[in-house]
Design brief:
Layout: E1 23-29, E2 35-39, E3 44-48, H1 53-63, E4 67-73, H2 83-102, E5 107-110, H3 112-116, H4 125-137, H5 145-159
Parallel strand pairs: 1-4, 4-5
Antiparallel strand pairs: 1-2, 2-3
Helix pairs in contact: 1-2, 4-5
Amino acid sequence: MVRKQRNLKDIKKTKPKTQYLEKKYIAIDPGKSGGIAVLHEDYVEAYKCPPTFNEMAKLINLINNGSYICTMEKVHAFPTDGRSSAFKFGVNYGAWIGILESNNIEYELVTPRVWQKDFSLPKNKKERKQELKKIAKCFYEKTTLYTSDAICIAIWRRANEN
């Protein structure tokens, strides 16, 4: 279940044709240091968060075909965050919601506490991030810290489908 990571520029403008409606799971880690993962039935695609809102929208348009379940991490700023970084984080989070809404993409929000509890992770943030990366690498060889949370959110969502 490994697929080479592609950059947004490398993706062809035409959407692939499928013989059937494949269910896929789109997961978004909305921070600037976050990523997007698409979990197909037999492979994973992962992308670092694009640097501009226009590229974010293009990426969503390219991966938005077929049957999918979209899940985005519901995040907020912490009191220890600086004002500038909290504002930038909120802007990116709002941009993802706006892109999904404007494309009529139904999505669900899930808090980190909810999706991470099934992975039995360490409490220390650095150790937790490394463990998530290790888990994601089992599904996608070229996992980075940018894409590991999104991949794990997609894995969690597929495992918890009702």
